[in-house]
Write a structure and sequence with these properties.
The complex is a heterodimer of chains A (139) and B (302).
Chain A: H1 2-16, E1 25-33, E2 39-48, E3 55-65, E4 78-79, E5 81-82, E6 89-95, E7 100-112, E8 118-129, E9 136-138
Chain B: H1 4-28, H2 36-53, H3 58-77, H4 85-105, E1 110-112, E2 115-117, H5 130-133, H6 138-160, H7 163-173, H8 175-180, H9 185-211, H10 221-234, H11 240-254, H12 263-277, H13 285-301
The chains are: A mainly beta (139), B mainly alpha (302).
Chain lengths: 139, 302
């Protein structure tokens, strides 16, 4: 009972405490259509926002949502795999439901390559998908 | 343990439930609102500004966002007191579009660690990243969403069982009769629309903090129509109705991927069919009465 209350109290304290600073991530995305309709092969480059060092992610996922239809598409987050010999580069495949502008939420948990600073962040990259507008990131 | 996808789906269901409950409150007093997304938007921006720019703690930012959304509800309720039905619905839609278009040009940024942070017109508002800085996981944040939703639902259910709940339903059924019974119909409507704004505001604040990013495009009429439709599908007999609507749409239609990209068409068809065969939704007043009677009999039998 006391333990449960202590955990609840700690949770409450974390919610009412000011946020702590940490290394943030920057990301770039380039997507190419595949032979399959609405399936895209994407390369993601993740760096530290201040240090610009490549980020070595323990876990990196990409979740797509349409800004014009928020919470309407509950696509399964796609895991991204690191590209060999290219630190900070990752590959993933996105299966979308329709063409249009999507916001890609890149969630990264890892550390920077040289200074080993922890990076846990979500970076939003807006990108238009569809005929004639593929691979057109909009920041 | 829940996987990331399920946590995401449940979080979305929880956050959109606030808009559904908000639209439901307005429906209870006999009006239809296509504009509850405006309060969601106002709170998303206000709470984001509070936590990301002013350094407020998360809970204070959520309360601030909800309060500002409630105030926006009050601002909508007062000038629309004299209009009803279709005209009220159009007024709410116009208000929501005014808010969205205002956000398209709203710029307020401050420099933090050499970078500009804050709303930047149509580019949106990035880096509302409290949960990342405080190292709160998506699962933990889902618990926060569910706790706030449960508290909101409990308060609404409690109000429905009180004299105030009966008054609000009376206003919704027949405002003239309610006035003849001595009910201050104007006050009931103003308070309900403001409270509905506050409820939608809680959802907006949670949305901004979970997604770390908002932009005006998110708060278009689509969001408001969904919120309204959940109440109409789920039923207007109880506050559980809108949640049933959310569960049917996102929980069943979308998450099972049974209809994939065609879900919107199925959803629209479902709304149309239900409006014909059950105009007050699945859990309408009659259904709620039958369920209550069944539960009371079962309880008495035990």
């Amino acid at each position: 009972m006391i333990r449960t209350m202590a955990i609840a109290a700690l949770g409450l304290v974390s919610l009412v405490s000011p946020a702590l600073a940490g290394e943030r991530a920057a990301a770039g995305v380039a997507c190419e259509p595949t032979a399959e309709a609405l399936v895209y092969s994407c390369t993601i480059v993740v760096t530290g926002r201040k240090s610009t060092e490549p980020v070595l992610a323990e876990a990196l996922s990409v979740k797509a949502d349409m800004p014009s239809m928020p919470m309407a598409h509950n696509l399964r987050p796609a895991s991204a795999m690191p590209v060999e010999d290219k630190p900070g580069h990752y590959m993933t495949t996105l299966e979308l439901e329709m063409h249009g502008e999507w916001a890609l939420a890149i969630e990264v948990d890892g550390q920077t390559a040289e200074t080993a600073a922890r990076v846990r962040d979500k970076v939003i990259v807006k990108q238009a998908f569809g005929r004639g507008r593929d691979a057109a990131p909009k920041q | 343990m829940l996987d990331d996808h399920l946590i995401g789906v449940l979080s979305n269901m929880g956050m959109i439930s606030f808009i559904a409950l908000s639209a439901y409150l307005v429906l209870v007093v006999g009006e239809i609102s296509f504009g509850q997304q405006a309060f969601f938007a106002v709170s998303a921006y206000a709470s984001g500004i509070a936590s990301a720019m002013w350094g407020w703690p998360f809970l204070a930012a959520v309360l601030w966002g909800a309060a500002v959304a409630g105030l926006a509800g009050l601002l909508l309720a007062i000038p629309t007191l004299r209009i009803r039905g279709l005209y009220f619905a159009i007024a709410t839609l116009a208000f929501a579009e005014m808010v969205r278009l205002a956000l398209e040009i709203f710029t307020y940024q401050v420099e933090q660690d050499g970078e500009l942070v804050g709303p930047n017109g149509s580019e949106g508002f990035r880096d509302i990243r409290y949960i990342y800085e405080a190292d709160i996981s998506a699962g933990e944040f889902l618990l926060v969403i569910l706790a706030l939703l449960a508290a909101t639902l409990a308060i609404i259910l409690w109000i429905e069982r009180t004299r105030l709940g009966a008054i609000l339903r009376m206003v919704g059924e027949d405002p003239v009769l309610a006035r003849l019974q001595g009910v201050n119909v104007n006050l009931a409507k103003i308070a309900t629309v403001a409270a509905a704004g506050l409820v939608a505001g809680i959802g907006g604040a949670l949305y901004a903090h979970l997604n770390t990013y908002v932009e005006p495009k998110i708060f278009n009429v689509m969001l408001g129509v969904h919120g309204l439709a959940y109440g109409l599908i789920g039923g207007l007999g109880t506050a559980f109705g809108p949640l049933l609507g959310v569960a049917l749409d996102i929980g069943v239609l979308e998450s099972t991927r049974a209809f994939s990209g065609y879900r919107m068409i199925v959803f629209g068809g479902l709304v149309a069919v239900l409006l014909i065969v059950r105009p007050r939704g699945l859990l309408d007043e009659a259904a709620v009465y039958r369920i209550r009677r069944f539960l009371l009999r079962k309880h008495a039998g035990d």
